[in-house]
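Thread: 3-phosphoshikimate 1-carboxyvinyltransferase, structure

OP (GT): Posting the sequence first so everyone is looking at the same thing. Length is 434 residues per the record. Can we get the structure tokens written out before standup tomorrow? I want them in the notebook alongside the other entries.
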Amino acid sequence: MRFTLSPGGNIRGQVRVPGDKSISHRSIMLGALAEGVTRVSGFLEGEDALATLSAFRAMGVEIERHSAGEVVVQGVGLHGLEASSAALDLGNAGTGMRLLCGLMAGQSFDCELTGDASLCSRPMGRVIDPLTLMGAKIDAQAGGRPPLKISGGRALQGIHYDLPMASAQVKSCVLLAGLYADGRTSVTEPAPTRDHTERMLRGFGYPVERKNGVISLEGGGCLEAADIDVPADISSAAFFLVAASIAPGSDLLLTHVGVNPTRTGVINILRLMGADITLSGQREVGGEPVADIRVRYAPLRGIEIPEDQVPPAIDEFPALFIAAACAEGRTVLRGAEELRVKESDRIAAMAEGLTTLGIENDVLDDGIIIEGGTLAGGEIHTHMDHRIAMSFAIAGLRAQEPIVVLDCDHVATSFPGFDVLASELGLRISVQAD
Ligand SMILES: O=C(O)C1=C[C@@H](OP(=O)(O)O)[C@@H](O)[C@H](O)C1
Ligand SMILES: C=C(OP(=O)(O)O)C(=O)O
């Protein structure tokens, strides 16, 4: 599937984008391992979260899908999973695989985890290392890549782990393994990362402590089922925050968006660039802060992105690079080497596409320098990365000529229905089969 963007247009209206991907993965995992029935609403029916759902079904958990976004998980308790007869296929999802590694390390049975070509090229050493220290046995392919074979029946020991990189996936993996470990498991992070795992564990009645930057829990407890209302995904809303900011005449209301402070880097960065973004109706839903976000067109200027905003905006940089391309002056990003190990190398993939559109940029090991300018048209390669596809789609609003975005199938991993919603809001997008 490819997107064709006709130049111009603006973004107007009101929309609730699909559910948060991080919270959707976790709702299935913790719901499955809880005692009792967990009802999830607002679940993201994207391929990544559905792969996690299928993995737990394959391990004997009854999970019903009702009307849009309503999912009912019949918890089996921390020790109630059954061995799957086939490898568990996590598709495109780094989150699914890395969090599952932690949980599977604590089971009594062996399992194999696999995924698509993108996932099988991503580094898993970052979770294998701490899990091995805890006593797990995990065999990987060359370079610590999937497929992974995780041996069951290992006695795990609580450890303290200093995360070498700011990664919520690694933090969550270690904490989830800690549920099965003897004694206390604790982590420190080089910078705060999304804390949905900690919040949801607490919501399921499992004590998680945070003291002087050390996050810890004691193994051997149990999870009690709790209902979960998944907020709209700020990472999906981000495409429209940028789209409305760059297209004159835009005025958009994004409703019920998750605004957990570990996720709002995109709002902070856009505001530093001059964006007109206001939050209203701030409330808490199931332990997660939620708000309605209004965004109106405003001229943007280039900035040096503060490094402390990198973790809370980690998935939003492809979209933010489009904002930088449309801004007046130079934008500099450093300290973001993690972007190189996402679904694609997002620094390289974005630099390539920006160059195609005539935007000057310099690639750094850990970031990029982008000179704002005029966007031409051209053919963009997504490297099978959903966020690259949607970022170049919104670039059409400011392009001089049509943009064709090739290989857009992966958009369904995080944002099913993106093209329809974007078109309703004013993006001049059409979809063709490859
Ligand atoms: O924990 C999570 O749900 C996620 C953590 C982040 O990955 P890292 O932990 O690799 O930074 C993010 O990029 C990913 O989309 C979702
Ligand atoms: C990096 C992402 O997801 P994951 O690591 O779960 O594949 C993302 O959605 O941008």
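GT: Both are above now. Quick notes for whoever picks this up: The chain is about 30% helix and 25% strand. The pocket of phosphoenolpyruvate (ligand 2) is lined by residues 21, 92-95, 315, 342-343, 387, 414 (CB under 6 Å).
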